[in-house]
From TrEMBL:
Region (Disordered): 1-24
Highest rank taxon of the organism: Eukaryota
Compositional bias annotation for Basic residues: 1-20
Gene it is expressed from: SMKR1
Name this polypeptide is given: Small lysine-rich protein 1
Organism lineage string: Eukaryota, Metazoa, Chordata, Craniata, Vertebrata
Amino acid sequence: MPGKGKRGKGRGKSGGKKQKKPEVDILSPAAMLNLYYIAHNVADCLQLRGFRWPGAPKSKKGKNKT
């Protein structure tokens, strides 16, 4: 169709200030309820919160289902 050329992919906000992530309380009731549903044991709970033990295998962010 005439008049329709290739469109470039739109870029997000370029430049400008980066927004600072708010501090999150990992001991809040909402966070504890979420952790209750996703963690299977204490070691899993600590790993999900970022406290890994020495020698623990590094896990990938997304789990591939193949």
